[in-house]
Design a protein that fits this description.
The protein has 340 residues and is of the alpha/beta class. It is built from 14 helices and ten strands. Helix content is 43%, strand content 16%.
Length: 340
């Protein structure tokens, strides 16, 4: 007698579950600023009806998570963060090959990133490494603003500088790789050893030094200049400088995680994220990188790459997992645990 009501209940459950399955789901690992991650996720849901489960972590942490989950991938897309770990992910075979129809419309540097990654990743924005400094603290302490990498070794900056830890931050790894390319490896590590005396904290994320500089918790922060621009536009007394010796840059990237649970949703996100109007949303998320689509709107306050002395950053070499591991291991052995 109870079979028919039970059957009706099962059929009702299946009927109500069907729209949710049709709607789709996406598991997004985001390594951009949290505001931008949230704006992108909400806009994708609005346009597609696909529900986004988003987590935000730094590039180093995200790559470590993807590697740990390789046997049973839980994420679908890794969006944002420095390009070197995306290239390492591609090298390890942890990302899917995908050639977007939009690829030919992107800036050359974004297409080169895709080519270097054997079309397992693509450039979505670019940003240059530099210094942020708190103008009020410099005036109060009567210290001249740093203009060069060499200026950061001045004894006046004792315990006045922050940079992220390269084991958790792609930004900090880019800084080490930049110094190695400018100076040579041995001089670069000698420089980092001297700089250590002036570091008050190695932060977990690459954004934190700019944020802490803006709020007066440190006088100088080393990181991507667009992060400091975001703080300046919020009214904080912070300014930026590209190093006189030259500096490296990131190609923020996007990759589809191999074996992810929602491959069609992942492709839908990929195409969505390369649209110029979508990339123009960056400034609403307080992000001021140079977008990879030429038709995307570049915010007026965004650092102009053609006005910064950029080095010929060797993404092919410093984007490999072996080189990244070697340099980070050396940093942890010789610098990170060094007494002050």
């Amino acid at each position: 007698m109870r079979v028919l009501p039970l059957l009706a209940l099962v059929l009702f459950a299946l009927a109500t579950a069907a729209p949710a399955r049709a709607q789709g789901r996406l598991v997004l690992y985001c390594s951009a600023l949290i505001d931008w991650c949230q704006i992108m996720s909400a806009e994708f849901e609005r346009r597609t009806g696909i529900k986004v489960a988003m987590t935000q972590k730094g590039s180093g942490e995200t790559l470590a998570q993807i590697r740990a989950e390789a046997a049973n991938p839980r994420g679908d897309v890794w969006w944002g963060g420095t390009g070197d770990p995306h290239l390492q992910m591609a090298e390890l075979g942890l990302s899917e090959v995908y050639r977007s129809p939009a690829l030919a419309t992107l800036h050359p540097w974004a297409r080169r990133q895709a080519e270097m990654g054997q079309f397992r990743t693509v450039g979505i924005y670019a940003g240059a490494l530099g210094f942020a400094f708190n103008t009020e603290l410099l005036a109060k302490k009567k210290i001249a603003a740093p203009a060069c990498w060499s200026d950061l070794l001045d004894a006046k900056f004792r315990d006045e500088i922050q940079i992220a830890n390269p084991a958790s931050s792609g930004t900090a790894y880019t800084a080490i790789a930049t110094l190695v390319q400018i100076m040579g490896e041995e001089p670069a590590f000698a420089y980092l050893a001297k700089l250590h005396a002036n570091i008050n904290q190695y932060t977990r994320s690459g954004v934190a030094p700019a944020r802490n500089t803006a709020r007066g918790e440190t006088t100088v922060g080393i990181g991507f200049m667009h992060d400091a621009v975001a703080e300046a536009l919020e009214g904080f007394p912070v300014a930026v400088q590209g190093p006189c010796e030259g500096t490296g840059y990131e190609i923020g990237s996007m990759s589809i995680i191999k074996g992810g649970p929602n491959p069609e949703s992942a492709k839908a996100w990929y195409e969505f994220a390369l649209k110029p109007d979508v990339q123009s949303l960056a400034s609403k998320g307080k992000s001021y990188q140079v977008p990879s689509h030429p038709e995307a709107v570049l915010p007026d306050k965004a650092p102009k790459l053609d006005r910064i002395k950029l080095i010929a950053y060797d993404f092919a070499k410093y984007g490999t997992s072996a080189e990244r591991k070697r340099l980070i291991d050396r940093w942890e052995k010789e610098i990170g645990g060094r007494p002050k």
